[in-house]
Write a structure and sequence with these properties.
This is DUF3265 domain-containing protein. It comes from Photobacterium sanctipauli. Keywords: Membrane, Transmembrane, Transmembrane helix. The chain is mainly α. The chain has one domain. It contains 1 helix and no strands. The longest helix has 37 residues. It starts with a helix and ends with a helix.
Length: 40
């Protein structure tokens, strides 16, 4: 049972890192898109 809990928390931590990286990529893309839109 304890192994299951540690396994779950590991999966959650990996998912969190994945979403964090994804958010970072989206921010960077939006930033460069915003700059591209702003520059004539």
């Amino acid at each position: 049972m304890r192994n299951l809990i540690t396994n779950c928390s590991r999966v959650i931590r990996h998912a969190w890192h994945f979403y964090y990286a994804l958010g970072l990529v989206v921010k960077v893309l939006c930033g460069s898109l915003g700059i591209a839109c702003l520059t004539p």
